[in-house]
């Protein structure tokens, strides 16, 4: 049995299910993810995939789309296993990339190639058992997807844009920054704790990703929130930040430009957020 999710106002291409089912059957993976096209009101679907073989750039989280922070800690050097299958009666199927559990989680944490969204994927039913969505949260994908990936021996990325993501001004991600958006920080903090326990080799990536998200959230809170909401937001951001402050060796492992921002953040975290806002960096 298989499970797929589709948002009520999004669309899928006619071959969405068949292509992903074929990918699961051919590779033996438990999860197959496809590419995404954004659809704007009154316009044709706009594919935002990178050239074949380069990995997609669409379907990123709000933080990644906006230049989430100084660093994700991701160095994507592990090879994957690309392939092209044959679908009976339809000719060659789209190229795919097959990732083992830990590699898939690494790509998910970095929001490259594989993404947090629940809806551009097809799952084998048994990989979802016992993993509920959180109640009363926004960004529920981020609380859920990494746990499902951790269950999968393999995740398959299909290089075809089969899901149409309709852009709406009143959606959570399309609306102005609000206090509830900080649920995403809680999700990433929970993910870091989970990774530290079950996949310690990915702890640095998860930690640096969370710290970068704290910087982005600090920037957005200072830029868009006022009064008591801003106070609550900054207090929450600061509390989570303190759980993931990078060490000197972790900072040294980052690219030069990231090292500059990270070192400044340790002098004055919210001072850095204000500076990046002033310079127009990170959004």
Low-confidence stretches: 47-91
Give the tally of β-strands: 8
Separation, N- and C-terminal Cα atoms: 41 Å
Q: What general outline do the C-alpha atoms trace?
A: globular
Radius of gyration over all CA atoms, rounded: 19 Å
- The overall average pLDDT, rounded, is 83
Structural class: alpha+beta
Give a description of the structure.
The protein is of the alpha+beta class and 283 residues long. 42% of the residues lie in helices and 18% in strands. The protein has helices at residues 16-27, 62-65, 101-110, 140-151, 183-198, 203-224, 227-241, 248-252, 256-267, 269-279; strands at residues 2-4, 11-12, 31-39, 45-47, 81-87, 91-100, 121-124, 154-166. Strands 1, 2, 3, 4, 5, 6, 7 and 8 form an eight-stranded mixed sheet that branches. A hairpin with a 5-residue loop joins strand 3 and strand 4 (45-47). The protein is globular, with a radius of gyration of 19 Å.
Quick gist of this model?
The chain has 283 residues and is an alpha+beta fold. It has helices at residues 16-27, 62-65, 101-110, 140-151, 183-198, 203-224, 227-241, 248-252, 256-267, 269-279, and strands at residues 2-4, 11-12, 31-39, 45-47, 81-87, 91-100, 121-124, 154-166.
Question: Which secondary structure elements does this structure contain, and how are they paired or packed?
Answer:
Layout: E1 2-4, E2 11-12, H1 16-27, E3 31-39, E4 45-47, H2 62-65, E5 81-87, E6 91-100, H3 101-110, E7 121-124, H4 140-151, E8 154-166, H5 183-198, H6 203-224, H7 227-241, H8 248-252, H9 256-267, H10 269-279
Parallel strand pairs: 3-8
Antiparallel strand pairs: 1-7, 2-8, 3-4, 3-7, 5-6, 6-8
């Amino acid at each position: 049995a298989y499970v797929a999710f589709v948002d009520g106002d999004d669309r899928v291409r006619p071959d969405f299910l068949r292509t992903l089912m074929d990918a699961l059957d051919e590779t033996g993976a438990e999860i197959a993810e496809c590419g995404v096209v954004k659809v704007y009101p009154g316009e044709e679907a706009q594919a935002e995939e990178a050239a074949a073989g380069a990995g997609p750039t669409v379907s990123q989280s709000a933080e990644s789309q906006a230049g989430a922070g100084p660093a994700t800690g991701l160095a994507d050097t592990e090879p994957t296993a690309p392939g092209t299958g044959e679908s009976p009666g339809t000719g060659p199927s789209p190229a795919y990339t097959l990732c083992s559990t830990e590699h898939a989680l690494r790509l998910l944490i970095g929001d490259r190639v594989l993404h947090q969204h629940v809806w551009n994927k097809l799952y084998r039913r048994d990989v979802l058992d016992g993993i509920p969505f959180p109640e009363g949260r926004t960004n529920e994908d981020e609380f859920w997807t990494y746990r499902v990936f951790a269950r999968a021996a393999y995740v398959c990325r299909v290089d075809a844009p089969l899901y149409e993501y309709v852009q709406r001004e009143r959606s959570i991600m399309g609306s102005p920054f609000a206090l509830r958006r900080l649920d995403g920080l809680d999700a990433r903090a929970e993910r870091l704790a989970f990774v530290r326990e079950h996949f310690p080799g990915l702890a640095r990536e998860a930690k640096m990703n969370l710290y970068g998200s704290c910087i982005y959230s600090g920037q957005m809170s200072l830029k868009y929130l006022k009064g008591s909401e801003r106070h609550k937001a900054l207090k929450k951001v600061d509390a989570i930040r303190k759980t993931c402050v990078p060490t000197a060796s972790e900072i040294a492992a980052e690219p030069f430009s990231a090292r500059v921002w990270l070192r400044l953040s340790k002098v004055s975290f919210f001072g850095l957020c204000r500076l990046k806002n002033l310079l127009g960096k990170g959004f």
